[in-house]
């Protein structure tokens, strides 16, 4: 198989794996949310603030460095495995020692045992990471995608089973450890890699230095994602953390489904054509147009149906998650431009400039959340949206300089989707105000009512309005629909 076909097949399997994981995780998450309490999720998320950050630092980007290295021998994998296992054991010892102080700081004794058990994952990680890195390096994306889906299904199934038997928060902790142990065995069999210790770890040090530089942006973004959990856990408790996490996961579903899938494709295309500024500009702004076209109606819809959607999917104990969803979706359009601008900076080797943006964003987010937290979950959501607006403008400014683009090009790229989204918002506002009495009787009926009106309105406007930037995409859909219309006629 040619390299081009290999890349295309790999991209297809990455898309299938990402989409499958999102759908499967969403469905299994609904079941877990109905079995467990918001407090259970909040406690685990609070612990993951610290274990997740330490995990990113401990890995040091060595796996990423192995994948990117021109040559990677068996000795290199042995060196990285040895170093990561040693670091994992040391980290576990530290978490085991500080667990009582951690529990005292949060005024929750259970945190001590939870932290000590959760930290066992650091010892298991090298057994999962190294064979996974090998599959990635060999471009065996189908195997990676299948393993990700198996892991997700397995961990959630174990958690559901334990939750039904009354294990509460422990079902989330133990299930992850069991899944990691099983996954390591399967990955080693699939990849052909076997763990082996070595005293020659000099090469691992070289990879770690390179990897830490490459992962700096990821760490900054991770801190941004966790800062709200940190302050909520201290200020409002684990129940509030659980509610806010559920709101965040629902509000940014369009980001994960649409924008996230396009990022990798755009990055590869821009990296390949980085010497062709005209084509790079076209790819960038065209991606903004198309992603906005398909993501914006989802954000608009979530704004109107947040409360009934939460109640229908998760039950009344999660009702407090609805209010922040209606605020967080406002960040959606800004995140589209920011995310795709990040692909430009990564492709043109401007990650050092992006790191400055992410660090400033982190500082702004901390300040905004401290101001907003007295106003509860809605105040925190407003803080996140405010900081996201800054990040979009700064990231776009850097991307436009890198591509020598003009602001008018961004306006032209967004005009069509924003016009359609605005008209859809107006239509749904009227539909909500004029809803029939029978619609008010059921959350499910309301969802169908608003979804049908919103979806039909957006589709008709997209297919009929003469918007220049959307003309080719509209024609593509008309060509697909035409055979069905002829058959029905």
How would you portray this structure in words?
This protein is mainly α. Helix content is 84%, strand content 0%. It is built from 20 helices and no strands. It has helices spanning 3-35, 38-59, 62-68, 74-105, 110-118, 121-137, 141-164, 169-191, 202-214, 216-235, 238-251, 253-272, 277-314, 322-328, 332-347, 351-372, 376-403, 407-433, 443-464, 471-488. Helix 4 (74-105) packs antiparallel against helix 5, helix 13 (277-314) packs antiparallel against helix 19 and helix 16 (351-372) runs antiparallel to helix 17 (376-403). The two termini are 45 Å apart. The relative contact order is 0.09. Mean pLDDT is 80; it is low at 1-8.
- As residue ranges, the low-confidence spans are 1-8
Overall geometric form: globular
* Gap from first CA to last CA: 45 Å
Q: Which structural category do the helix and sheet elements fall into?
A: mainly alpha
Secondary structure: helix percent: over 70%
Number of DSSP-assigned strands: 0
The main β sheet shows up as: none
Gyration radius, in Å: 24 Å
Task: Tally the helices.
Answer: 20
Question: Could you report the average pLDDT, rounded to the nearest whole number?
Answer: 80
Order of helices and strands: HHHHHHHHHHHHHHHHHHHH
Percentage of residues in strands: under 5%
């Amino acid at each position: 198989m040619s390299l081009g076909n290999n890349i295309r097949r790999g991209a297809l399997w990455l898309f299938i794996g990402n989409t499958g994981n999102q759908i499967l995780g969403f469905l299994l998450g609904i079941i877990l949310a109905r079995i467990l309490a918001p407090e259970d999720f909040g406690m685990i998320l609070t612990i993951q603030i610290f274990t997740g950050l330490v995990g990113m630092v401990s890995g040091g980007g060595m796996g990423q460095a192995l994948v990117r290295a021109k040559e990677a021998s068996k000795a290199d994998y042995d060196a990285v495995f040895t170093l990561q296992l040693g670091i994992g054991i040391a980290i576990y010892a530290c978490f085991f020692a500080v667990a009582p102080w951690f529990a005292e700081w949060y005024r929750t004794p259970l945190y001590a045992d939870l932290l000590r058990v959760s930290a066992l994952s650091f010892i298991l990680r090298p057994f999962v990471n190294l064979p996974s890195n090998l599959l990635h390096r060999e471009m065996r994306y189908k195997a990676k995608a299948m393993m990700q889906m198996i892991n997700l299904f397995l961990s959630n199934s174990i958690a559901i089973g334990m939750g039904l038997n009354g294990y509460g928060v422990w079902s989330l902790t133990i299930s992850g450890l069991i899944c990691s142990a099983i996954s390591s065995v399967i990955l080693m069999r699939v990849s052909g890699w076997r763990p082996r210790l070595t005293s020659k770890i000099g090469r691992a040090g070289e990879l770690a230095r390179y990897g830490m530089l490459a992962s700096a942006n990821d760490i900054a973004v991770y801190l941004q994602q966790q800062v709200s959990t940190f302050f909520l856990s201290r200020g409002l408790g684990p129940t509030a953390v659980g509610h806010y996490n559920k709101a965040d996961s629902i509000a940014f579903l369009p980001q994960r489904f649409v924008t996230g899938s396009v990022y990798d494709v755009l990055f590869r295309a821009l990296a390949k054509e980085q010497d062709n500024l005209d084509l790079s500009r076209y790819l960038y702004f065209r991606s903004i147009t198309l992603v906005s076209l398909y993501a914006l109606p989802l954000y608009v819809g979530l704004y109107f149906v947040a409360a009934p959607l939460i109640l229908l999917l998760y039950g009344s104990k999660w009702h407090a998650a609805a209010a922040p969803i209606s605020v967080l979706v406002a960040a959606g359009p800004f995140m589209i431009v920011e995310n795709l601008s990040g692909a430009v900076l990564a492709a043109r080797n401007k990650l050092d400039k992006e790191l400055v943006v992410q660090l400033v964003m982190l500082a702004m987010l901390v300040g905004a959340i401290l101001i907003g937290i007295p106003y509860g979950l809605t105040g925190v959501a407003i803080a996140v949206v405010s900081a996201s607006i800054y990040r979009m403008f700064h990231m776009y400014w850097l991307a436009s300089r890198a591509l020598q683009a003009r602001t008018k090009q961004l306006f032209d790229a967004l005009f069509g989707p924003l016009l359609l989204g605005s008209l859809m918002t107006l239509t749904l506002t009227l539909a909500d105000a004029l809803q029939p009495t029978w619609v008010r009787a059921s959350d499910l009926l309301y969802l169908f009512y608003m979804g049908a009106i919103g979806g039909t309105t957006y589709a008709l406007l997209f297919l009929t309005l003469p918007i220049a930037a959307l003309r080719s995409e509209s024609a593509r859909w008309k060509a697909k629909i035409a055979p069905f219309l002829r058959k029905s006629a």
